[in-house]
Structure formats: C-alpha cells, structure tokens
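Please decode residue identities from the backbone states below.
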C-alpha cells in the first residue's frame, strides 16, 4: 500500500512545451491508482497563496496538444525564505497533500529539495521541464525537442530570403548557459557557424570560415548564436563581421520568446507522458527527493542532490566535431 494519498502537481520556472502532457499523465496515473490530485497554480506561488484546486480525469481533457502550462508558472522569490516555505507547508498540510510532483528546471529542483529536507513528511519528485536541455540525469528535458523544431522552422524561412539576396544572417536562439538548442538547430539547418556558450570562437576564425564559404560560392550564410555566447552581443558581432566581409548584406534576427510556444512535438508529448507516469509511480513506491529522467530510452531516478551537483552537462561531442565540417 502506498503511503501517499494526495498528490500536488505544479509547474515552475520557464514554461516548456510538454508540461501539459506531463500534468495530464500525473493526474490520470494518480487517479488510476486511487489517489487524489490537486493542481497548484503558478508554481511555488500557489503553495504560498493557497491557490490550488482538485483535479479529475476530465480536468486534463484536450490538453496534450497545448503549449505552455494549464497550471501556469511563475518565479517566486518568497519561496526562497524560511517564512515563505513555512506558509507553503501549512497550506499543503491543510490540503492533505503528502506528495508533490514539481515540473521545472534546476531552480525548481533546488526549491523542492530544500522544502522536502525541511519537511520530510512531504515526498517530492522532480520532472525535468526546461527547453534548455541542461539537466544531469536525463538525456532530454521537456520542451527541448519542440523548441528546436520551432527554431528550425524559422531558420528554414530565413534561409529562403538569405539565399535570394546573398545575405548573411546572424540568428540568436535561446540558451543563456546552454548551447543545446543552437547546436541541434545548427546541424539541422546547415548553419555555416554555430556560436555556443560552452565553446569559445575566435573572431578571426569566424571571419575566415565565412570568407571561405564565399570563396566556395555559398549563396547565403546563417550563423546561429546562442544567447549566452561569449563572443559579444549579436549586434556587435554582426557589425564587426560586416567590416570584414563587405560583399554580403548582413542581417540580424533574434527569435526570442516564440521559441517557447506552440504545440508540443510528438517526442515531447510522449516524454511528458512517460515522465509524469513515472513520477507518480515513484511517489507510490516510496521514493522522494529524486528526479525522473530518460536515459538510454529508459526511465531513471536520480537523487535531486546529484542532479543539481553536476554543472558540467556536456553537449554531444560528435555534433560538436561535425558542426564545422558539414558546413564546408
Ligand atoms: P528554467 O530552467 O526554465 O529557468 P528553473 O526551475 O531553473 O526553470 P528558476 O526561476 O530558477 O527556474 O526557479 C523556479 C523557482 O524555484 C523560483 O522562482 C523559486 O520559487 C524556486 N527556487 C529557486 N531557487 C531556490 C532556492 N535556492 N530556494 C528555494 N526556492 C528556490
């Protein structure tokens, strides 16, 4: 018999496509197992402000195809304080919640771990939900695949105009600390260069590479720049390159928040469903302070402490190795 009788589910930090399929899986798996489920609105803010509601199987009808999160999300400063956590705990206890599924990124997990260390009678399981794909313990995080597909669709369109006008486009994509979206999108779109926070690129090398492209009769060039690239802001970068490469008309596009939206891809719908299902089963089997992830196509539980202690999340080395070679 499970010790858990009532599960609270929340989404926190940045929204990511795939959160809704995950919420749906949590609700239905819990109800199938005879548990009650409460939806907590706006992440930890809803715990502190007691903004929660009972969910049933029909509360999650027709949400598989929706981007964003029906529970809404927020960044909540008061949850970082002892007083905020105590208020959240009292509200959770009053609701009768004894297990939490938190869907979010490393900040969300840090909060969850602190909360459950302080109040060990509440079991907590984390689900990696962030478009940045930068959490240790899961090869993929919810939203990464959809966000990358959105970027690819946009860059394919940019390529059409770049090609027609002999233009060089600098395209900024999300990723303050992680180049995962930039790298995947760059390989998928045949970008001439990909600038990543994890890898320094010398300006002379970039210019030489782009000049070489022109010598090889490329009719257009796309340079993908992750937000966190250290070479300099995208506008300054474009200006510096324009001084050296005058035959191309250089344009800058910042894709921005459109990368977060849209219907989740098939991959993110299935991943959200698998992780939500696994999170509830982990709570039922007595687990706590763990993250559910997918590694080698199998569900894996990683202690939150371990998931949070690895900041050396690596990009795929073969993609890094091929990115310049395939763009010659
Ligand atoms: P993303 O990767 O999309 O940014 P995230 O989960 O890392 O998602 P954050 O804004 O860093 O997003 O964290 C979400 C929330 O988690 C914060 O608003 C806060 O409520 C809580 N949180 C973060 N760090 C802590 C902490 N040290 N102690 C308590 N709560 C925290």
């Amino acid at each position: 018999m499970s010790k858990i009788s009532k599960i609270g589910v929340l989404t926190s930090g940045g929204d990511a496509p795939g959160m809704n399929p995950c919420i749906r899986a949590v609700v239905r798996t819990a109800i199938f197992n005879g548990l009650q489920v409460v939806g907590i609105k706006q992440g930890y803010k809803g715990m502190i402000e007691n903004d929660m509601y009972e969910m049933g199987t029909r509360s999650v009808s027709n949400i598989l195809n929706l981007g964003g999160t029906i529970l809404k999300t927020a960044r909540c400063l008061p949850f970082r304080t002892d007083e905020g956590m105590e208020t959240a705990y009292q509200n959770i206890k009053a609701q009768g919640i004894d297990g939490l599924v938190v869907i979010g990124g490393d900040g969300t997990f840090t909060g969850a771990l602190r909360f459950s260390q302080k109040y060990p009678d509440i079991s907590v399981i984390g689900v990696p939900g962030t478009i940045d794909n930068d959490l240790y313990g899961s090869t993929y995080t919810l939203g990464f695949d959809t966000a990358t597909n959105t970027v690819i669709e946009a860059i394919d369109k940019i390529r059409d105009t770049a090609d027609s006008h002999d233009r060089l486009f600098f395209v900024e994509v999300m990723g303050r600390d992680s180049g995962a979206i930039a790298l995947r999108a760059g390989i998928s779109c045949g970008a001439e260069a990909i600038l990543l926070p994890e890898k320094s690129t010398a300006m002379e090398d970039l210019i030489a590479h782009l000049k070489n492209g022109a010598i090889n009769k490329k009719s257009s060039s796309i340079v993908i720049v992750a937000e966190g690239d250290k070479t300099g802001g995208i506008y300054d970068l474009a200006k510096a390159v324009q001084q050296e490469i005058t035959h191309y008309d250089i344009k800058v596009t910042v894709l921005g928040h459109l990368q977060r939206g849209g219907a989740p891809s098939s991959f993110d719908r299935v991943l959200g469903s698998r992780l939500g299902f696994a999170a509830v089963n982990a709570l039922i089997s007595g687990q706590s302070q763990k993250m559910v992830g997918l590694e080698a196509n199998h569900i894996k539980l990683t202690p939150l402490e371990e998931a949070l202690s690895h900041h050396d999340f690596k990009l795929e080395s073969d993609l890094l190795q091929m990115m310049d070679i395939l763009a010659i």
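Observation: Residues 145-260 form a domain with the Rossmann fold fold (CATH 3.40.50.460).
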